[in-house]
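Q: Given only this backbone (673 positions), what sequence would you predict?
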């Protein structure tokens, strides 16, 4: 038998349990789907990956073989993405060239034996093979597209029980802005055992009960990494800090003021004065000429993970509202941020309440009865949440008693409109805020029997919104109702931009404008459209998206309060959300007020945050240029101050593998005696 065949056979045998491995996909500890990995007698590996959460999920089937060094080759992936787009991707290395073709792109680049390919949408089974290959390399690394290196290292070890045996936690870096974590067998096979994230897991069948222990150990390792980053990147701002001769944004008035001197002490704004008016020697001084000082931005729809903190702060987002998460994990993360252990925004939590159904999302608390849902409201009130978020499977008849109780306990009520209910009915039953612009538009395009727990909540809007007459009495009456009751709308326009406007192979419009600053593998992902749109259907959906922009503009002009949320990419996603408000026709100064003062007010924090004034928390953003004239200037943040510490976004971006937008500002620091 020749050497290559011997090596190939040994690799096949080393897969161990992966020859016929089966895994359970869990969402919030409930079974959501499966992963099957089978190795055929000829050594070819086939995977079948499928799950459903919140009425959607991917279906992927793959086939690939392993080279003699374990690198995946001759890859074929087929299926449907989370939003239903077709997946069709092929890859191989032939004659020292990596060649691939997908529905989004194709390429041909020189490639060595250690080259590894990262598909646009692959199953954990593929990544399990990739991790095994990396761990087998002398330095744990391999080359990939763009001349980059990806690396695997073992961060921790754990033996959950004698029957399971020893496991190793592997971190893969270089492919993304944050590490990818995998649990593998801690033996020669390094067979995939589990992937764990808060609220989501893929675990070897029969080992589902071990997920909490694995996740706890993984989070401990991740927190150690994030804690080290904070120690390195946070700049203590003790004593007195002066930002000299800077223009500053008066958020409640939506006006630019100054130039002024802004004085900061003990984590708060101490004074805003005429330049040179105070004869005080500060600990540090920052020249603000040519720059603008704003209150820290608010993302009012962010589902926070510990790894997101750097991206939020790099984008000037100093505060977020989280309207749906693993409750215990979110509270722990909020505490770690407040104690200064990890980098992250100020967290204002809204408690997620969902009804039990086959389509249930599994965040927060899922209630089977009204009494259980009412108990959930009480639980959130007792645990420091600022509001509740109701979701798709809540029964319409529950809405009024839930909103009544929530408001009696001082909790703000927002959410999706429950299935088989219209937005106007939800508002009249007590909603104080509507989440997502599609939920507003469904008020005008829903048909009898439409089930908004499914993808129909996007498809109906995409096909029918373009025909809605925004000047019609029905639309005008509804907008008047929102204005009269001061019902807030969180449009999350950026969530729907690619969904409704992107053709396969085109750049995602949300991040396309900053593609050159992103990791190379992200740049490739930007050409994958979430839905299959082409021809007349694409034209229709684009007209519908334009109507969503116009509806957002009309609500704002009528006096309906807006807040800015993303439900997507941390930091940079909010910049695009605000740019879309400007594109819709809302003046940039008013957009800045939405992103600062409105967020603080709706979160119940307007006595503490959201404006530049004496006594307010020093949550501040210093940017090059004037975003009241050019909203894109928000990307050019040079300094972000969060109370008693500050960060240079350039350094945060570099830590994530991004190309910075601007350099850190110079600071004159007074020598200590």
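A: Predicted residues:
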């Amino acid at each position: 038998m020749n050497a290559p065949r011997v090596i190939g056979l040994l690799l096949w045998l080393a897969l161990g349990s992966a020859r016929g491995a089966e895994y359970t996909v869990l969402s919030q500890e409930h079974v959501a789907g499966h992963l099957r990995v089978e190795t055929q007698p000829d050594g070819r590996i086939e995977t079948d990956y499928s799950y459903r959460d919140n009425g959607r999920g991917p279906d992927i089937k793959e086939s690939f073989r392993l080279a003699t060094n374990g690198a995946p080759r001759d890859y074929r992936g087929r299926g449907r993405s989370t939003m239903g787009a077709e997946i069709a991707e092929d890859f191989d290395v032939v004659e020292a060239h990596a060649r691939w073709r997908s529905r989004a792109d194709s390429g041909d680049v020189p490639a060595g034996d250690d080259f590894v390919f990262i598909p646009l949408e692959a199953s954990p089974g593929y990544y399990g093979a990739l991790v095994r290959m990396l761990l087998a390399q002398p330095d744990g690394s391999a080359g990939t597209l763009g001349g980059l290196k990806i690396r695997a290292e073992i961060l921790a070890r754990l033996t959950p029980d004698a029957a399971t045996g020893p496991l190793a936690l592997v971190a893969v870096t270089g492919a993304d802005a944050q590490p990818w974590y995998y649990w593998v067998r801690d033996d020669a096979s390094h067979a995939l055992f589990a992937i764990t994230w808060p609220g989501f897991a893929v675990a070897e069948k029969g080992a589902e009960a071990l997920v909490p222990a694995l996740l706890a150990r993984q989070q401990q390792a991740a927190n150690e990494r994030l804690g080290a980053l904070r120690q390195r990147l946070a700049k203590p701002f003790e004593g007195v800090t002066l930002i000299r001769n800077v223009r500053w944004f008066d958020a409640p008035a939506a006006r630019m003021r100054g130039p002024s001197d802004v004085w900061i002490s003990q984590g708060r704004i101490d004074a805003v004065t005429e330049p040179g008016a105070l004869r005080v020697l500060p600990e540090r001084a920052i020249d603000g000429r040519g720059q603008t000082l704003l209150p820290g931005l608010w993302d009012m729809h962010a589902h926070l993970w510990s790894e997101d903190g750097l991206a939020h702060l790099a984008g000037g987002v100093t505060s977020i509202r989280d309207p749906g998460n693993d409750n215990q994990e979110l509270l722990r993360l909020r505490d770690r941020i407040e104690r200064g252990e990890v980098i992250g925004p100020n967290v204002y939590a809204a408690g997620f309440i969902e009804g039990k159904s086959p389509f249930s999302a599994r965040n927060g608390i899922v209630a089977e009865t009204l009494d259980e849902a009412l108990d959930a409201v009480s639980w959130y009130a007792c645990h420091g949440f600022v509001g509740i978020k109701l979701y798709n499977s809540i029964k319409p008849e529950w809405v009024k008693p839930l909103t009544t109780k929530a408001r009696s306990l001082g909790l703000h009520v927002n959410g999706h409109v429950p299935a088989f209910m219209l937005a106007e009915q939800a508002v009249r039953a007590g909603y104080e805020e509507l989440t997502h612009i599609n939920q507003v538009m469904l008020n005008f395009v829903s048909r009898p029997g439409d089930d908004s727990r499914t993808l129909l909540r996007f498809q109906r809007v995409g096909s029918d919104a373009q025909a809605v007459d925004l000047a019609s009495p029905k639309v005008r009456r509804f907008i008047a109702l929102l204005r009269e009751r001061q019902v807030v709308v969180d449009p999350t326009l950026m969530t729907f931009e690619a969904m409704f406007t992107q053709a396969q192979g085109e750049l995602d419009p949300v991040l396309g404008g900053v593609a050159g600053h992103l990791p190379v593998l992200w740049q490739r992902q930007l050409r994958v459209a979430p839905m299959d749109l082409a021809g007349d259907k694409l034209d229709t959906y684009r007209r519908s998206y334009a109507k969503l922009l116009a509806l957002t503009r009309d609500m704002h002009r009528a006096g309906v309060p807006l807040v800015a949320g993303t439900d997507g990419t941390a930091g940079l996603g909010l910049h695009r959300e605000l740019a879309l408000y400007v594109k819709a026709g809302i003046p940039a100064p008013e957009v800045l007020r939405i992103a600062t003062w409105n967020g603080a007010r709706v979160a119940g924090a307007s006595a503490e945050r959201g404006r530049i004034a004496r006594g307010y928390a020093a949550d501040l953003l210093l940017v090059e240029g004037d975003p009241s004239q050019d909203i894109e200037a928000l990307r050019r943040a040079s300094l972000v101050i969060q109370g008693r510490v500050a960060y240079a976004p350039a350094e945060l971006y570099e830590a994530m593998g991004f190309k910075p937008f601007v350099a850190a500002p110079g600071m004159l620091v007074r020598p200590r005696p």
